Amino acid sequence: MINTTIDSIIFPNIKICQPDKKSGFRFGSDSIVLSYFSRIKPNSFVADVGSGSGIIATLIASFYDANV
Question: What's the whole-model pTM score?
């Protein structure tokens, strides 16, 4: 069984469930920076395929009010 943590990042209403440090990959600060500097136009439609944890898609939707 994989142990998970529920972490709040950037905005208090965004919570990400991810494996604990011993059980698997956890996203890093590079994912947060990449999503912030992606420069998406508001109300754009964005496809995020094979993204792993979904953190980049979640933050793009929050930062830019995009449809992911």
Answer: 0.72
User: How many C-beta atoms lie closer than 10 Å to residue 43's C-beta?
Assistant: 9
Cα-based angle 43, 45, 48 (whole degrees, multiple of 5): 130
d(CA 47, CA 20): 27
Q: How long a stretch of residues is the chain?
A: 68
> Do 65 and 40 touch, CB atoms closer than 8 A?
no
3-state class (DSSP) for residue 9? coil
Distance CA 42, CA 25 (A): 30
Q: What is the DSSP letter of 35?
A: H
* Radius of gyration for the chain, computed over Cα atoms and rounded to the nearest angstrom: 13
Quick one: pLDDT at residue 48?
Answer: 82
Instruction: Answer whether residue 52 shows pLDDT above 80.
Output: no
